[in-house]
Nicotinate phosphoribosyltransferase
Amino acid sequence: MTNSNFLNIKNGRNLTMLVDFYELTMGNGYLDNNVGDKIAYFDMFFRRVPDGGGYCIMAGVQQLTEYLSNLKFTEEDIDYLRSKNCFDERFLEYLKNFKFECDVWAVPEGNPVFPGEPLVTVRGPILQAQFVETMILLTVNHQTLIATKSNRICRAAEGRPVMEFGSRRAQGYDGAIYGARSAIIGGCTATACTIAEQMFKIPASGTMAHSWIQLFSTEYEAFKAWTKTYPDNCILLVDTYNVLKSGLPNAIKVFDEILKPMGYRPKGIRIDSGDITYLTKKCRKILDEAGYEDVKIIISNSLDEHIITDVLSQGAKIDSFGVGERLITARSEPVFGGVYKLVAVEENGEIIPKIKISENEEKITNPGFKKIYRLFDKSTDKAIADLISLHDEKIDDTKPLEIFDPVHTWKKKKLTNYYAKDLMVKIFDKGNPCYKNPPVKEIQKFAKEETEKLWEEVLRFENPHTYYVDLSNKLWNLKHSLLNKFSDLYD
Amino acid sequence: MTNSNFLNIKNGRNLTMLVDFYELTMGNGYLDNNVGDKIAYFDMFFRRVPDGGGYCIMAGVQQLTEYLSNLKFTEEDIDYLRSKNCFDERFLEYLKNFKFECDVWAVPEGNPVFPGEPLVTVRGPILQAQFVETMILLTVNHQTLIATKSNRICRAAEGRPVMEFGSRRAQGYDGAIYGARSAIIGGCTATACTIAEQMFKIPASGTMAHSWIQLFSTEYEAFKAWTKTYPDNCILLVDTYNVLKSGLPNAIKVFDEILKPMGYRPKGIRIDSGDITYLTKKCRKILDEAGYEDVKIIISNSLDEHIITDVLSQGAKIDSFGVGERLITARSEPVFGGVYKLVAVEENGEIIPKIKISENEEKITNPGFKKIYRLFDKSTDKAIADLISLHDEKIDDTKPLEIFDPVHTWKKKKLTNYYAKDLMVKIFDKGNPCYKNPPVKEIQKFAKEETEKLWEEVLRFENPHTYYVDLSNKLWNLKHSLLNKFSDLYD
């Protein structure tokens, strides 16, 4: 990987300095107190699925890999930091010679993930493991948010293609670019974002805007001009003036008078406003009667999973959807609240677990260096539960396994005929990338397969069953022994 | 301006291909129909203020300038487009030799702006004026959204400093970087985003995270270590274990035992969780009794304008705020719905206005090449109304002016003792940049001054008065004459 490929943005750019300033003041402080090299373990995890859903779709590992592979402070960066008058020369020298040395594990992209489990774990000198916090969170929070939203919207479409159309309303350029990438991971079949096709080999598509129609003297003339240029991909936008009184009649006239003599079939019509259910039913009937049963109806007006579910249940006749602002910003819940917490340090080679307590139980962290096992039913291939264990615990899935609810510990379940999958993969070994990121289309396929392994009660949009994320006996005991040490703070 | 400075991202990047694919299919179609050079006028405008507010703060003109100054298709871009098998060689040749030739006008950054008025107007060959749609919308929509949200949050803080802390929850890297820029324009005093200071000369700051506290054997040891490194800027995070039972007593102990003998005063404490009102009142009292009346209390827990208003009205003792995810994503309403519409074309040198009609009256556009006058009361300097007129109308503000409500036309108002300000500036002349973008800190100051010229009824958070955006007589008549032509579509 070269710098020119950094973050896959054409021409490259260096985002090493995209970092919360406190990572730098802490870094300087760690060195100043001679603990900069102390080995620390950090987990990135989230606490709640957006939109009340049952799971999230992990995304962003490729960009995280590219970021971590290209950390580099320039002379200009060092000079700027020096000008802040709060950093020691020793720290600036450290940054100048910065070489990433951490081990990093992550859940591969496309996996369904659940609250409380580590999505990324970093082990290394605390100065470094701390420094990368901002970009790990920024990268995974954003892409997981959009992949998760896209997955909801695509499931609502029930197999109909969904195209991502949101660049113009995204929150910044990367919001559009990586948002398009994440939308594809979640299930979208294409994007309107051209640069995303160049960068990620995901299909870009698009036809015309209302301005095309307005430019010509009449809607008919505009359709005619379009059809002559694109006879083999003729999709006409029919709502500039009035769908039923103008757009559709003009489209059919052009299909009959222009396209047919040229020897082509039309591909579709697009409707971008108005009463979707009413209009699509009417249009379908009129198209069918005109002999255009194969012409698709494409809808693209402020859609999300709820509106799509609604119009389909009302019998709207839609073949595919273009989804914009509500997908690219995850409008209904635009924040993915991933956090990055210290979970252990090493003292003389021994791992000492650390806990972050809180008066809010949800905010108490799972201590220690951990891994995640996903447990599947052998007969159905469905996921039963995730089990978070300490890193050195092994599950022998030839033997029965008893799991229990970490809060209501009397709720137990004995598993037989199951298999266990180790969910996290190592992506950096002592600072060197050691994982091959798959192409986006493969991640999309994987996400679909893994999502289908969830019970439909977990897939539900509203009030899904809570998927079990349990702790191993050893981890549960460790956590509670640490909590007991702080019990005087709760009286 | 050089390419290496493009979009001000360090090391540069080329976002020419960040474009909705349909801009390209239309471009090819315009050329194919021999109308690519037809002169067209497009307006960017929005229809509704987010969060039910009374106005927005314009932002993004500098990045728009940089984008338009650096449009360039590489060989690789041309090859990629050729591989799509839908573009003529003539079009690819056009792109290869692309030279931006449009005139562009914009409302300068920091101005309060209102629904329905053009924020950006582009005049030029339709192929080009169409092409830039995606990036104009993406740039101005994002930055205006965040500047507007920031302005609300900063006004709620009633003069207390507000710091932008949201990078980790932003929607992508640019969401963090340009979000920080926009947050400063809206009124924030600083950001945690380090690279934003380098790029925009806006102050970056930050101290410590909970991980610093956790790393040391005790909270006291952690505070002591910090204080020794940063005696001159000692702000301690006191909520890792328990604010009142542990954090604050330890902080005061360190202030007394470590900092005082070193000859320094502490700067502040930060609280990131819990009951803000209760905790800050208690902390203020304890700090004061310990002789630390000058030590500031900084709060940073999921804040927005409503929570800030709430806790201040309850008497919380807060000196400054750190605001994260709810600002950087404009969480309460994360979409800014700016649109870009064709409003006129030239035929034989004459401007022919175009209108986009809709069954939804709000979506009907204002036709023609226009300008905006902001009308101020001479005696109070308060803004009375905006008047959108045709581009060649001049207001003689030495004479009385009658304005009227464009919907309820019988509501009229006669202005005397007023002055008129032409709001839009030309930023490109025949493709050449002709406007000097001011530094961000100047834009911030300007935004504050211009906002203070609005009546407090417009500034209100909930149910503000609607600021008048009227049409000149000439424009109103033009619009209605065009609408009447389409009246048969509404029967």
